[in-house]
Amino acid sequence: MTRDVTLPLWLFLLILLFAAVTFASHFLFPSVRWFFRRRLERAVRRLNRRLQRPIQPFKLARRHDMIQRLLFDPEVARAVHDHARAEDVPVDVAFETARRYAREIVPGFSATLYFSVAIRLAKRISRMLYDVRLERGEEALARIQPGATVIYVMNHRSNMDYVLVTYLAARNDALAYAVGEWARVWPMSRLIRAMGAYFIRRRSRNALYRRVLARYVRLATDGGVAQGIYPEGGLSLDGALQPARLGLLRYITDGFDPDVREVVFVPVALNYDRVLEDRILIAAGAAGTRRFRARITSVLYNTARLFWLKLRGRYRRFGTAAVAYGDPLTLSDFLEGHPPDEKLTEDLAQELMTRIGAVVPVVAVPLVCSVLSAGPMRRDALEAEVGRRLDLLGRASRVSAKDRVERALVLLRSRHIVETGPADGGSEEIRIRPGQEELVRFYANSVAHLLPPADQRISAPANEDAASAGS
User: Fold this and answer.
1) Residue, of 180 and 431, whose pLDDT is higher
2) CA-CA 20 to 30 A from 333: which of 127, 303, 339, 449?
3) Dihedrals φ, ψ of 198, to 5°?
4) Mean per-residue pLDDT for 26-38?
5) 206-230 pLDDT tens trace
């Protein structure tokens, strides 16, 4: 028993490694997890005192526990058996497929990462790129009944939407976004999941996958998780509002029980003086495909270029990024006035898109583009028409029509979208540069639905009056 035993060095090190892992897993890790869990709970309590809507326990549940709860949900269990029969595979194989779907969908929210890193980063990026403006409706959020699940329903103009709304909603909620396949790229996927986002396959027709996703959305909604969804299903390729898709809205309304938790939809409308992906989106629309050719090298190059301009003091922001909240819609109120038929989700989607469209911000570039899309125009006539449309829309503000036109033209000239030249009488004429017509229409489309059909072009009296004034 006291004789020496000789071992190779590699085997001795391997034994030490297994001993260290065993000690850590049985003694050290549980204590460390408990220590950090207590710190996290104290931090969340401090955050909840600051937030208008506290973070719900469902959002803070461990990811492993949430996956297990989802897998053993009765409806998911039935879907697993149905999938096994339909595909003629063993139940345990179908169960593993469901587990893979659940692991793909369920986020792993980190309050520390969300509030210490994501919010600050979103604020910095938003203010660096744009003059951020919240136009209306924030006071309506304060009137939403406590304990309700808030669903932010947004139009999708740019991938900056995620950053902008995360920053602006930080005082009220910790948002969980439904994000598409583009975000399932490592290491971005881990960061996005830690911020509370859940992944969805927008084009999947797999019944088991859709049941797992539907049950997660239902559990999150019943758990009070504030969510941000884009009913259009993707970025607008022509700048206009798109028809709503019904998938996520149907998951939210199916099985809704106001006695469990009320659901309140908050329409959110966004608009920009410059959409970062505008030319990419127009090219995708012209090609008839949603496959965007945005290479990571191009993104890195443009990011480095912006920082270089900032270091040299020549950086100029991309104009205004504006957000407006529409009138909230309580789901139980909507259901009271609607018969329980198959069109319920369709009518709900239509109502939400109408409320979003009604409050789309009218920022300078889209408004000026909506006027210039009718043809070349003298500067004084352009200012007069912009002022007339602002009065027509009831969007007059402290910023005059003249100042709006000047801001828009500075941005449009810097991108070589418009050019100026002399007009009769010595005044300045503004015209669209050849080849930039589609880009002008892209921005004009974002506000076109707000104007009567007769105001999609410059009216004859406005031109005649301006002409006589300049002669």
Assistant:
1) 431
2) 449
3) -120, 140
4) 54
5) 899 999 999 999 999 998 888 999 9
Locate 395 and state its tokens: 């969007």
Cα 343-345-346 angle, rounded to 5 deg: 60
Residue type, 364: A
Phi and psi angles of residue 369, each rounded to the nearest 5 degrees, phi first: -65, -35
Distance CA 468, CA 471 (A): 5
Mean pLDDT of 221-250: 90
Digit-coded pLDDT (tens) for 153-172: 999 998 889 888 888 887 77
- Does any domain span residue 178? yes
Asked whether residue 248 is assigned to any structural domain, the reply reads yes
What's 7's DSSP letter?
-
Are residues 234 and 209 part of one domain?
A: yes
Q: Is residue 303 part of a domain?
A: no
Residues facing residue 377 across a β-bridge? 430
Residues 37 and 179 in one domain: no
**Which residue carries 């309304």 as its tokens?**
253
Which has more confidence, 323 or 121? Answer: 323
Domain count, the chain: 3
Residues 6+ apart with CB under 8 A from 316: 309, 414
Least confident of 93-102, 275-284, 377-386, 396-405: 396-405
Beta strands in 380-427 (DSSP E): 418-422
In three-state secondary structure terms, 435 is: coil
The whole-angstrom separation of Cα 226 and Cα 115 is 15
